[in-house]
Each structure stands twice: as structure tokens, then as C-alpha cells.
Design brief:
With 260 residues, this protein is α/β, with parallel strands linked by helices. The protein has a single domain, classed as Rossmann fold. It is 45% helix and 17% strand. An eight-stranded mixed β-sheet has the order 3-4-2-5-1-6-7-8, with helices on both faces. Helix 1 packs across helix 12 and helix 6 runs parallel beside helix 7. It starts with a strand and ends with a helix.
Length: 260
């Protein structure tokens, strides 16, 4: 079971779009997938076709110890992946857990109960380096960082890399950067090309070869509660996430072979 924390403290970089569409694309590639929505805004939940208003139990109840993960998991009818949904209640978890022993490992312990029921678990982190994000980084095998190729993104990236190093030192010694994903990419933009080249120069093969283009279908699909793969399978955005899913599966197999 490979657990990927998909995070970037900068908002609006396509993090949730990546979670929902990658989950659907991995399922299309015959993988068993669980998406965990860790953002109080619950955008991954609604983007997966789940009605937030009707939720009685969410990932919040798991983090505070009131429910097990299996008890809150639902299935996205259109995306065909499982999801642990979120609602506004999750914002209160930060305060409620602050004095609890082992507060950073709540999610890790919850995931351990799944006993490899999934091939991939995707953690949609909030756009902040808070206790919920630390829970995700502590539970994850690796981090995927979606980012736009613009100047300010590079500044935020250094902060995130430092946080990952701290978590590796104190909470999760095996945590690694799985990859950097270039999102909302416009090939006609010279600055985007320059930043992209800098990323590849500095991070090498940590940068996914797949690039997610700026695409109207990716923007439209969440309003229908659908992954782009269901909303418009032929769109450039949907096809890019299919390509990303296959790249991730190839990387996972390569790591498994190296381990053997």
C-alpha cells in the first residue's frame, strides 16, 4: 500500500484537482485507491460526487478517535474510488488534538488498520503546514508536490522541503519526495518554461515527466461532482492525469524491484 501525501501550502495550485483526477485515473489503470480528504473545505469530497451537507461521519471523527477509517469510507459512484470525506468540522481537529499524546500519528494508526486493502492511498492536504498536514506527512511513504511554474512557487517550495526534512528527522524517517508535478502549465508562457527548466535542473528525475496543462474541462468537472476522466475523457486534462497515473505505477514497480 503506497501512501502519497499531496501537499503544497500555497493554495490554488491544482492540489485537489490532482487528487480527484489521479484517483480516478489510477482506478482506470486497475489499481485499488482510497482518497482521504484532509482539507476542511472538503473540495475533494464534493469533487468526488459526495454531498457534504448529508455527512454524519468524516475523517474528522477518525482523527479525534470517535470512528475507524473503515466506518467513514464511502465510494465515489462515478470515480469508482473510495473516499474518506471531510467537512468544516475538520477545522476543529487542530484545537482538539493540540494537547493529545501522539497527536501527530492519529492518521498513521488509522491507516494501519486497513491492512493493505488498497494499492494507493492519496492524502489531500490542506493548504497550510498545520497539525493535519503533519499527520499526513507522518503517515505517508512519500510526498507529491503539485505546483505552478511561477516565481512565488519556488519560494514556497523551499519552505515545504524544509518541513519535510523536519518530519523525516523527528516523525517519519522514511519519508521522501515522490515527485514534483507541474500543473496549470501554459507552454506559451516564457516564465513557465524557465521555472520548469529550473525545477528539472535542481530536482532532476524527481520532477514528473507528465505535465498537467491549463484546461477548461479540469476546471468544469468539479461543479458536476465528476473527475475529468468521467466528465470528458478525451480532454487534454483528463488524458494528462491518465498519463500521470501510469508514470506513478511505473515508478512504484521500479521501487519494488529495487527493494527486491
Amino acid at each position: 500500500m503506497r501512501i502519497l501525501a499531496i501537499t503544497n501550502q500555497k493554495g490554488g495550485v491544482g492540489k485537489t484537482t490532482t487528487c480527484v483526477n489521479l484517483a480516478a485515473s489510477l482506478v482506470a489503470a486497475k489499481s485499488r485507491v482510497l482518497l482521504i480528504d484532509l482539507d476542511p473545505q472538503g473540495n475533494a469530497t464534493t469533487g468526488s460526487g459526495i454531498d457534504k451537507a448529508g455527512l454524519k461521519q468524516t475523517i474528522y471523527h477518525v482523527l479525534i478517535g470517535k470512528k475507524t477509517l473503515k466506518e467513514v469510507i464511502q465510494t465515489s459512484e462515478k470515480g469508482l474510488f473510495d473516499i474518506a470525506p471531510a467537512s468544516r468540522d475538520l477545522a476543529g481537529a487542530e484545537v482538539e488534538l493540540v494537547n493529545e499524546i501522539g497527536r501527530e500519528t492519529r492518521l498513521k494508526l488509522a491507516l494501519a488498520e486497513l491492512n493493505d486493502s488498497y494499492d494507493y492511498v492519496l492524502l489531500d492536504c490542506p493548504p497550510a503546514l498545520n497539525l493535519v498536514t503533519v499527520n499526513a506527512l507522518t503517515a505517508a511513504n512519500a510526498v507529491m508536490i503539485p505546483m505552478q511554474c511561477e516565481y512565488y512557487a519556488l519560494e514556497g517550495l523551499s519552505d515545504l522541503v524544509n518541513t519535510i526534512k523536519k518530519v523525516r528527522t523527528h516523525l517519519n524517517s522514511t519519508l521522501e519526495i515522490e515527485g514534483l508535478l507541474r500543473t496549470m502549465f501554459d507552454n506559451r508562457n516564457m516564465l513557465a518554461q524557465q521555472v520548469s527548466a529550473q525545477l528539472v535542473s535542481h530536482f532532476g528525475d524527481k520532477v514528473y515527466s507528465t505535465v498537467i496543462p491549463r484546461n477548461i474541462r479540469l476546471a468544469e468537472a468539479p461543479s458536476y461532482g465528476l473527475p475529468a476522466l468521467v466528465y470528458d475523457r478525451a480532454s487534454k486534462g483528463a488524458q494528462a492525469y491518465v498519463e500521470l497515473a501510469h508514470e506513478i505505477i511505473r515508478r512504484s514497480k521500479a521501487k519494488a524491484n529495487v527493494a527486491i
